[in-house]
Amino acid sequence: MKKLKELEKKLDKVKKSKIKDNKYHERPAVNYSIAINISIELITGIGLGVFLGLMIDNYLQTKPLMLIICFILGTLVGFFNMYKALKRYKFF
Predict the structure, then answer these.
(1) Distances from the Cα of 9 to the Cαs of 31, 34, 49, 62, in angstroms?
(2) What CA–CA distance (Å, rounded) separates 48 from 43?
(3) Within 13 A of 40's CA, how many CA atoms are on the CB side?
(4) How far apart are CA 76 and CA 38, in angstroms?
(5) Nearest alpha-carbon partner for 40 in 51, 32, 29
(6) What is the rounded distance in angstroms from the CA atom of residue 87 to the CA atom of residue 85?
(7) What's the CA gap between 54 and 67, in Å, rounded?
(8) Most buried among 13, 21, 43, 92, using CB within 10 Å?
(9) Predicted pLDDT at 82
(10) Is the dihedral of CA 25, 29, 32, 33 positive or negative?
(11) What would the pLDDT profile of 43-69 be if each residue is shown by its tens digit?
């Protein structure tokens, strides 16, 4: 029993130190702005891909082809930008 109580004390100490080290834990406004920024990165990539796909489709008269290609490329670019933003906030 004594070892179990010692282990519980050590675990509590580690948990408290981890909470203090996490700078995002105490400030929910920072978390909200990070989430909005990451969402905008993804939505912008997809939106620009769809817009460019529609414009190219109208110009070349290839209705669904360029939309699909640009949607896929825009999604990939959005996820890459999202990854860079998360890296900037040191989540990776």
Answers:
(1) 30, 34, 53, 67
(2) 8
(3) 7
(4) 14
(5) 32
(6) 5
(7) 6
(8) 43
(9) 95
(10) negative
(11) 999 999 999 999 999 999 999 999 999
